[in-house]
């Protein structure tokens, strides 16, 4: 009986780029990098890329960090510390650490890999998959890696199929009928269309597969180019498109769905509106993103907390949650919660209401507060009687109100409102 073919993921390492702030999230990234931002009640954004790699069979990973990396590093140390070197498993955290000289930090996404060439060499792998650490999706990377090998490509680029009218916000691939990339354009005003669908285009996901020896030489050459910006999207990929064989991999072919007819789910939660909506969407009857999937779980650090608790059952003082996700350690004391997502350890008090609220861990909501369409940062103390979401002009005096009408509340904002700062 012939043996099953070896999974290519066992000869691959995942290099996750997690150094960016994510400035469009504004105060949510004042103290943490975007990949460390909370999502979905228990997880952080970076858990999706890491879980996809783990579920795909990849056991060698590295995470490049730079901007305010402490909470990200601490999360990975606590939640992703099960890799064992004696089983040939590794997860290395690679902060920008002046490895080239005393003034040289990571100057771009390609430079972050270049500065760690010796570490990647030590993994003794054949392939490397470069991942962004700041998107929400489920994907079997083995499918993309196998397609890369079978096509004999120099690079394979993971791509989303998007309406052409929306493609101007992405790096866009022009491809021929075989899927070979003929041009790569960053945020074009006139995006190239798919050859078989003039209304749609292929947008880069920031996911790239290379043979390591090939990428290693590319990075060495790029480091010696004084005109380079040291960036995968701006320099490395266009170089391969011009001088080698670059192939596009469509996300629909490797997306992990919870049912056959489900759409391919991918979200960039890089704005307050997008972050709020992606979290609130999880409260739907049948959400597009299935966090309950035992076959493709999203792994994370799980705190040891008691179950959620609901108390009081009086008129206008009833601890209840409808169409909501309530995490462990929460106490819903005489509060009505609707269409909301509460992270670990949220305490809400009597005669308050939360509607379309995304509440990060360890927030306390005092009595008589009414909060609608809000994102509340970790550890905030909501004062008694605070009303947000009913008067946008008043909210904007103290808080950040997004273009979509979502109000972001942080402790610093509340302190200024109270005259404490």
UniProtKB/TrEMBL annotation:
Q: Name one GO molecular function term.
A: ATP binding
Record GO biological process? glycogen biosynthetic process
Record field: catalytic activity: alpha-D-glucose 1-phosphate + ATP + H(+) = ADP-alpha-D-glucose + diphosphate
Which Enzyme Commission numbers does its entry carry? 2.7.7.27
List the pathway annotation: Glycan biosynthesis; glycogen biosynthesis
Annotated residues that bind alpha-D-glucose 1-phosphate are located at 106, 171, 186-187, 204
Q: Where is the Glucose-1-phosphate adenylyltransferase/Bifunctional protein GlmU-like C-terminal hexapeptide domain?
A: 306-409
Keyword annotations from UniProtKB, A to Z: ATP-binding, Carbohydrate metabolism, Glycogen biosynthesis, Glycogen metabolism, Nucleotide-binding, Nucleotidyltransferase, Transferase
Question: Which CDD domains is this protein grouped with?
Answer: ADP_Glucose_PP, LbH_G1P_AT_C
Q: Where is this site: Could play a key role in the communication between the regulatory and the substrate sites?
A: 66, 105
Every copy of the Nucleotidyl transferase domain together lies at: 14-283
What is its quaternary makeup? Homotetramer.
What family does the entry list?
Answer: Belongs to the bacterial/plant glucose-1-phosphate adenylyltransferase family.
User: NCBIfam families under this entry?
Assistant: glgC, PRK00725.1, PRK00844.1
PANTHER family noted in UniProt: GLUCOSE-1-PHOSPHATE ADENYLYLTRANSFERASE, GLUCOSE-1-PHOSPHATE ADENYLYLTRANSFERASE-RELATED
- Please explain the role this protein plays, according to its UniProt record: Involved in the biosynthesis of ADP-glucose, a building block required for the elongation reactions to produce glycogen. Catalyzes the reaction between ATP and alpha-D-glucose 1-phosphate (G1P) to produce pyrophosphate and ADP-Glc.
What protein name applies here? Glucose-1-phosphate adenylyltransferase
Q: Which gene encodes it?
A: glgC
């Amino acid at each position: 009986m012939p043996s099953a073919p070896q999974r290519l993921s066992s000869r691959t390492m995942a290099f996750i780029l997690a150094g960016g702030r994510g400035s469009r999230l504004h105060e949510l990234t004042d103290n943490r990098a975007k990949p460390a931002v909370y999502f979905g009640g228990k997880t952080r954004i970076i858990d999706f890329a890491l879980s996809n790699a783990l579920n795909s069979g990849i056991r060698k990973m590295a995470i490049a960090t730079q901007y305010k990396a402490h909470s990200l590093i601490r999360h990975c140390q606590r939640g992703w510390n099960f890799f064992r070197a004696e089983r040939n498993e590794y997860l290395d955290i690679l902060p920008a650490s002046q490895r080239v000289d005393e003034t040289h930090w990571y100057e771009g996404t390609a430079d972050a890999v270049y500065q760690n060439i010796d570490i990647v060499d030590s993994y003794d792998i054949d392939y490397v998959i470069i991942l962004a650490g700041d998107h929400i999706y489920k994907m079997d990377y083995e499918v993309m890696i196998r397609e890369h090998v079978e096509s004999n490509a120099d690079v394979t680029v993971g791509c989303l199929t998007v309406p052409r009218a929306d493609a101007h916000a992405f790096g866009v691939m022009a491809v021929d009928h075989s899927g070979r990339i003929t041009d790569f354009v960053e945020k074009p005003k006139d995006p190239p269309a798919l050859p078989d669908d003039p209304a749609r285009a292929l947008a880069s996901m920031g996911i790239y597969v290379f043979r390591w020896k090939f990428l290693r030489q590319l990075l060495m050459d790029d480091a010696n180019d004084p005109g380079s910006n040291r960036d995968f999207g701006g320099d490395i990929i266009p170089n391969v498109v011009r001088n080698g064989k670059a192939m596009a991999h469509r996300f629909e072919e490797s997306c992990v769905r919870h049912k056959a007819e489900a759409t391919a789910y991918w979200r960039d939660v890089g704005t307050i509106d997008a972050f709020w909506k992606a979290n609130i969407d999880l409260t739907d009857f049948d959400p597009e993103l299935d966090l309950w999937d035992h076959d493709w779980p999203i792994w994370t650090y799980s705190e040891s907390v008691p179950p959620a608790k609901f108390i009081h059952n009086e008129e206008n003082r009833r601890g209840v949650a409808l169409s909501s996700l309530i995490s462990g350690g929460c106490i819903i004391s005489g509060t009505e919660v609707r269409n909301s997502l509460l992270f670990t350890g949220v305490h809400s008090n009597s005669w308050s209401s939360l509607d379309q609220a995304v509440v990060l861990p360890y927030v306390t909501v005092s009595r008589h507060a009414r909060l609608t369409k809000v994102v509340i940062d970790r550890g905030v103390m909501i004062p008694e009687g605070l009303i947000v979401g009913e008067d946008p002009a008043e909210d904007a005096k103290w808080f950040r109100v997004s273009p979509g009408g979502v109000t972001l509340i942080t402790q610093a904002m509340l302190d200024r409102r109270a005259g404490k700062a």
